[in-house]
Amino acid sequence: MTLLLKAGLLFTGSQEIDNGWVLARDGMIAEIGSGPPPPADEVIDEPNCLAMPGLVNAHDHMYQWATRGYVPDGTLFEWLRALYPVWARIDADTVRVAARAAIANLLLSGCTLSTDHHYVFPHRRPGIFEALVDAARELGLRFHPCRGSMSLGESQGGLPPDSVVENEDDILAHTEAVIARHHDPRPGSMCRVVVAPCSPFSVTPQLMRDSAELARRHEVRLHTHLAETLDEERFCVEKFGMRPFELMEDLGWTGDDVWYAHAIHLSDAEVDRIAEVHTGVAHCPSSNMRLGAGACRVEDLVRAGARVGLGVDGSASNEDANLAMEAHQALLLARVRNASPQALDARTAWRLATKGGAECLGRDDCGTLEPGKCADVVCFRVDDLAHAGIKDLLAGLALAPPARAQTVIVNGRAVVRGGRLLTADEDQVAREIAATSRRLAG
What we know:
The chain is α/β, with parallel strands linked by helices. It is built from 14 helices and 17 strands. The chain has helices spanning 76-87, 92-108, 128-139, 168-182, 205-218, 230-240, 244-251, 268-276, 285-290, 298-304, 323-338, 346-360, 393-399, 426-441; strands at 2-11, 16-18, 20-25, 28-34, 42-53, 55-57, 111-118, 142-149, 194-197, 221-226, 258-262, 280-283, 307-310, 377-381, 407-410, 413-417, 420-421. The strands form 2 sheets. Strands 1, 2, 3, 4, 5, 14, 15, 16 and 17 form a 9-stranded mixed sheet that branches. The chain has an 8-stranded parallel sheet with strand order 6-7-8-9-10-11-12-13. Strand 11 (258-262), helix 8 and strand 12 (280-283) form a beta-alpha-beta unit.
């Protein structure tokens, strides 16, 4: 099966091609060019669009789509304390409905590859991880679900209530089981499992060490929250006598198989060290601003040579999961932090949203448009009212982020056409998440 996509402008990640085209064969890119295209079984012609690599979401909590709008003016720890009791009521059906809503929104905004850091597994609520995997498969998203965990409850000095933490042996056994069942390491894989204890304030150091050992034994990646707030920094210094990144080094949580979410509060030496050990960072600008957590030193990390991607974070702390908006926010926030318009340019912002995220997730087959890479492509209109007449189209799309994509192709298959989702009924998804959110709130 071959699919040909033609666009007015094609951005491959390294070059810009007028009237370019991409030929996909069996889910992979076979050819890229301009001028007369080769024949194909299916042709999608978007002359009024800019096409680029599908966007990559390097950090998310999809279950939170069911609890948007809570604690709109709270800090991270205030927000978490208010929401933990609500999240304690989730089950597989909640997660399925929330994931469908989150994934639909991601696809409509041009995301083709996403992770999801799921760490809430209430007791005697089976099927939660499977609900995530099934939702991504059904809607057609390339997916890296994280088997997250919390084991350090309030009675042991952690932040989460005891009602939402798990036994560590159970966590490790279930993590191994979902790797065996769902992880596909092959090139072009649609599903890869990640091992992801939640944070230094919600799991024990021993679980961090055991999780790293398990992940490396099975050759899967590691993910966790790190250095998101000054409250977290104080917690780590008081409890462990170390700053958050120092703790990660001590626990063996650095290397090219690890990426952190947020990494806001880093010293100069820590920025350089993260780059040196090839550890990734998922920058979540909208969530960081929503919670008043601070601004990641993204431009310093990029300059140091670190792997940096973008994430929408949980939709309860970023009520709109739109990667194009995150590229926009990253661009502007870097300039505010540095008081300089040269801090981050638009093309670098788009690379964070594509290749950078793919590098964090360990995907050398995604993030750019090249022969042999996955056929994941997004097309954004540039002839609409918001963008018509803009001189530099790539810069224009970053400065005026599109609300939704025109066409989205994942694995050589169109999942969005004409700005409409093809793999689910958008109105039905909206009705389901509205009902589920009301039930949780009640």
